[in-house]
Write a structure and sequence with these properties.
Helix content: under 10%
Strand content: over 45%
Largest sheet: 4 strands, antiparallel
Low-confidence stretches: none
Oligomer: single chain
Distance between the termini: 32 Å
Structural class: mainly beta
Radius of gyration: 13 Å
Number of helices: 1
Length: 70
């Protein structure tokens, strides 16, 4: 995101409850802790990202994705 100073990613379950939130990040990517990722099941989830810019913060999302069995 142009002009971004930091990002904060939130992972939500299907009803919209936040189940994980990153620390403030300067990179535009993040990895989930293996123990947390192992608890995720076949399900629909959502993610959103708060972008902190000098002039204002912006929330992008939520965007959905679905985990499926391999």
């Amino acid at each position: 995101q142009s002009g971004a100073r930091s990002y904060r990613l939130t992972l939500l379950d299907a009803p919209g409850t936040a189940i994980w939130r990153s620390d403030s990040l300067t990179a535009n990517h993040v990895s989930l802790d293996r123990a947390f990722a192992a608890r995720l099941t076949t399900h629909t989830y959502y993610w959103s990202v708060d972008v902190e810019r000098e002039e204002a913060s912006v929330e992008l999302g939520p965007f959905w994705f679905r985990l499926v069995d391999p």
